[in-house]
Amino acid sequence: MLDILCLALAIALAFGAGKLASLVKMPAVLGVLISGMILGPNALNLLNQGILDAPAYETLVSFLECCMGLMLGSEMVWKKMRSYGKQILVITFAQSLVTFGVVSLAFSVIFHFMGIPVFLGLIFGGIAMATAPAPALSIISEYKTDGPVTRTLIPLAVIDDVIAICTFISVMGVVLHHTSNGSIPGYLILLIVAFPLLIGTLVGWPLSLVLKRISTGKKRAAVLLGGIVLTAGLTMFANAYLMPFPVLNYMMSGMVYSAVLANRTEEKAFQETMKYCNPIVGACFTVIILNLGAPLDYHLILGAGIFTAVYIIARAVGKMGGAALGAELSHGAPTVKKYLGMTLLPHSGVSLVLTGIAISALTGEYSQYGDIVRGTIAAAAVINEIIAVFVARWGFTLAGEMGKAGNKA
Predict the structure, then answer these.
(1) Could you tell me if 383 and 123 are in contact, meaning their C-beta atoms sit under 8 angstroms apart?
(2) Where are the beta strands (DSSP E) in 243-305?
(3) pTM for the whole thing?
(4) Which of 19, 128, 366, 371 is within CB 3.0–4.6 Å of 315 for a Cys-Cys bond?
(5) Cα separation of 353 and 288, whole Å?
(6) Lowest mean per-residue pLDDT among 80-94, 181-195, 229-243
(7) Separation CA 383–CA 39 (nearest Å)
(8) Which residue from 290, 305, 342 is spatially nearest to 321, judged by alpha carbons?
(9) Cα 135 from Cα 157, distance rounded (Å)
(10) Rounded to whole angstroms, how far apart are CA atoms 136 and 154?
(11) 2-407 architecture in CATH?
């Protein structure tokens, strides 16, 4: 009972920290992450190690990760994605894959000379691909920006994390092959992608028929959330009984489930349904980030300085260079080529979830390297999030798009 009360208090404090961060014009995720670090076992110990290791708590986090996928999948409407056109896809893939290549190469070279397994550099490359578009999108709303950069960023934000998640899952298949001493069969990489696709579709398809028969948003939301519980439960079953190791991605299962419903439900009805679900998704996000922040040791963050600097710089080079390359290949506007990359630097949210997945795969003799990943990404999330907000605003200013939406006739 005491652990439950401690967990409830920690969640309430994290939620308050997120609100406080928003009041001072910073991303809420930053406040939640820092509060988790303060409340965790390495500081105030309100969220003690016993809570974090409890099977019931780990199950809860898995369900919440699946619910997080609801947010991503709701934007994967085929009609919208098809309307984005070839240019958006070229730019998105270019900036994602160039970022992966630059960051992976940088860390692989460093790890080679330090005697650390080189393949671990792929983890950093996979995590670096993810973008947190909320800060840049909030600038669009606040400063009423409009122009080529703005119109490219909005659809790109939808597609970017999908590419990141799929690439990261493939990377984790390679990592698991090494960390399990080669005992993982080659087909596991396929299963890591196939099971979430299968589970999300099997649950989402029949429920889409049910949603069409329901007239009120509240009732549809209840069915939608019930489907998420079922999706998470089936993923948990597959993880425990159908996989040699529990490595299935709950967020991807939820994302596929949500995408199926979004594409098979009338748009207005689905958006009305999501309005009721969004507060719950936001609460899930708070708990997940709190969970990722709790194990962080500020000593590790302070000690990971060189890795953090390399990560932030390499990721910035990849995002900005990749966006410029994509714009060049697709004949994008000059402002897109020059300044889009500056709006893609915010980096938390999905990246922190991916970090948790990566750390869980570093077991046995490789568990010592989990501290490097955790400390580097945590420090980068805090430092980069602060810098990136200002860089994104600067990018819109240089592109000449500030206030343009308000000037429309």
Answers:
(1) no
(2) none
(3) 0.69
(4) 128
(5) 7
(6) 181-195
(7) 20
(8) 342
(9) 11
(10) 9
(11) Up-down Bundle (1.20)
How many distinct helices (H) and strands (E) make up the chain?
A: 18, 0
The Cα–Cα gap between 15 and 13 comes to 5
- What is the mean predicted confidence (pLDDT) over 351-377? 77
Which pLDDT value is given to residue 409?
A: 43
Q: Which residues of 291-311 are buried (b: 16+ CB within 10 A; e: fewer)?
A: bbbbbbbbebbeebeebbebb
State the Cα–Cα distance between residues 48 and 41, nearest whole angstrom: 5
Is the distance from CB of 72 to CB of 255 less than 8 angstroms? Answer: yes
The pair of three-digit structure tokens given for residue 257, joined into one six-digit string = 């489930």
Kindly state the DSSP code that residue 246 receives in the 8-state scheme: S
Look at residues 19, 59, 55, 57 and name the one whose alpha carbon lies nearest to residue 35: 19
DSSP 34-83: HHHHHHSTTTT-SS-HHHHH-HHHHHHHHHHHHHHHHHHHTT--HHHHHH
How far is Cα 249 from Cα 247, in angstroms, rounded to an integer? 6
Tokens of 180: 């399990």
